Amino acid sequence: MPTPEEARLLDIGPGVPVLLWTRTGYSAEKPIRCTITTFRGDLNRMNYEIGELSARNENA
Fold first, then answer.
1. Less Cβ around it within 10 Å: N or C end of the chain?
2. Is this model's pTM higher than 0.85 or not?
């Protein structure tokens, strides 16, 4: 559930969940950044695909 500040910034009321997306970027040797993004949970959906894009069948 959102913090009071998140609820204010996202203009959401009580009972509306948030979605936290955490991304970590790496160099060849170590992590170099971490980004945490907060979305309204009632208006957003994540669709994640991992793997080679060339292996994806666009005609399926």
1. C
2. no
